Amino acid sequence: MSEQPLMRGFPPAPEHQVTISNWRLPPFNRWAFSHVRHILPTAQIARAAVPVLPLRRAERALGRIAFQGPDGRERTIDRMLGETFTDGFLMMQRGRILAEWYDGSLTPSTPHIIFSVSKSVTGTLTGVLVEEGRLDPDSPVTRYIPEAAGSAYGDCSVRHVLDMTVSTDFVEDYLDPHGDFARYRVATGWNPVDPAKATDLRGFLVTMRRGKAPHGQNYHYVSPNSDLMGWILERACGRAYAELLGEALWQPMGAEFDAYTAVDRLGAARPAGGVCVTLRDLARFGEMMRNRGMANGRQVIPGWWVDDIRNNGDSGPWQRAEASKIAPKGRYRSKWYVLGNDRGSFCGIGIHGQWIYVDPAAELVIAKLSSQPQPLDDPTDFLLLAAFDAIAKAVM
């Protein structure tokens, strides 16, 4: 897909202006997703000051790999990239880049929003604080956020927050202009709002309503849980989320570029969906997870935490949920999807087509950044999983 003539000119023509009102809508999202800092307030996630070794390359012509999609049609990887509004796509095996592809407004040095892959970053970061003894995942949320007493989080544990098993009646409907999610987005600053009626993210979180079921019984995907998780991390270590992520993960991981996260009007970060990173650094993050938390010769994330993500957790809540159709034998653990296939694959997924996919058996990491028109697109998700599976089989 060719780049739209957006945000060109001084000023751009009205029909080509990207604003807070249209930035998540096509065709404006093609520009917006790699220019979030032009639209929203952000906080920097700093890379290390020392030079970073470039990623090694072992390029292969993988675009011609053929596979059958769930619709029964034959495709190639190259065709899939065009069909799925891909902005950036990188395949890495054993730490070497097999293929790297860019389109739209994305360049190798441009951060792109990863939406809910931010949750997987946050769940991974949590392991650092647990290892350091600053955070107990079995403790009640109110140990860290006493303001949450009386809300849905008032009688749940941090583990419930990590595994999306908090009982709440919050409805995550991205397209409902008047529902819970619309009010949540106003609080985050992602939707236009009358300044006289402005709210804030942390204030919104402590108004979340309790559901009827016991905590831990049902998998219920609720983005505010992950923003609360970021707030818990901040309280546990006394550092802002962006600073903590930079120092505990981005710098020791050997990120090539600074990242950043969206923040609300009071500076609260968006650990649920506001992190913006370059394609190569997203792949580095996936490679670190493939290597049990090792990067640059050091243990960045505790190996046992990665093992816990891959091997532990209760599959019952996940398998009782409608979301399990994407991985019927899978689980959700510490904000990662564990697919339950025979290669031990696990992944982070974000709306509009963001992916980090790790296949340990094939020693493969796939990073995909996209600007799909719709937030959710189940047929495309199934198509991508079929493509990733074909790639893994082709390189094993």
Q: TL;DR of this structure?
A:
The protein has 396 residues and is α+β, with helices and mostly antiparallel strands. 30% of the residues lie in helices and 16% in strands. The chain has one domain: DD-peptidase/beta-lactamase superfamily (Beta-lactamase), CATH 3.40.710.10.
CATH architecture: 3-Layer(aba) Sandwich
Low-confidence stretches: none
Rg from C-alpha positions? Answer: 20 Å
Order of SSEs, N→C?
HEEEEHEEEHHHHHHEEHEEHHEEEEEH
Q: Could you name the CATH class?
A: Alpha Beta
Instruction: Kindly give the count of domains.
Output: 1
The CATH topology turns out to be: Beta-lactamase
Write down the overall geometry: globular
Sequence-ordered SSE layout with sheet pairings:
Blueprint: H1 29-32, E1 42-45, E2 56-57, E3 66-68, E4 74-76, H2 77-83, E5 86-93, E6 96-102, E7 112-113, H3 117-131, H4 158-162, H5 180-188, H6 201-205, H7 223-237, H8 241-253, E8 259-262, E9 275-277, H9 279-290, E10 294-295, E11 298-299, H10 303-311, H11 315-319, E12 331-333, E13 336-338, E14 346-350, E15 354-359, E16 364-370, H12 378-395
Parallel strand pairs: 2-6
Antiparallel strand pairs: 1-8, 3-4, 5-6, 5-16, 7-9, 8-9, 10-11, 12-13, 13-14, 14-15, 15-16
Question: What can you see in these coordinates?
Answer:
This protein is α+β, with helices and mostly antiparallel strands. It has one domain: DD-peptidase/beta-lactamase superfamily (Beta-lactamase, 3-Layer(aba) Sandwich). It contains 12 helices and 16 strands. Strands 2-6-5-16-15-14-13-12 form an 8-stranded mixed sheet, with helices on both faces. It has a 4-stranded antiparallel sheet with strand order 1-8-9-7. Strands 3-4 form a two-stranded antiparallel sheet. Helix 3 packs parallel to helix 7. The chain starts with 28 loop residues before the first helix and ends with a helix.
